[in-house]
Amino acid sequence: IFQKAKFVTMFQENFNEKEKDFNELLQKKSKKIEEAIAKGKPDEEIRKMVQKRDEELEPKKQELMQYEMSFQQTFLLNISTTAKKVAEEYDISVVLDKQVIYHGGFDLTNIVLERLNNQ
Q: I need a labelling partner for 110 at 20 to 30 A (CA). Which of 68, 76, 80, 90 fits?
């Protein structure tokens, strides 16, 4: 489901764009530090530049982490809710991850995936 759900693909595209923006900003700020090192600036000045860069980037880093955590929670809730509804429709009392089943059972994966993609 994680590999085929539409909303996962949309999240990954959005996350990749946010991550790209973050990395570009990091590189831009790091380049200034590298230039200062090449010019032989004092270590204390370099440390202050690094600290300033890290302080400026921390909120963006936290935003990326929060975005990912929020997605994961929503993703798991959507799968759980949808799997529960499908299981009730098919009068199934237990739903397990198919990776822990060696033989038998009824695979709900495609049904759950279809429902998730139609939301």
A: 68
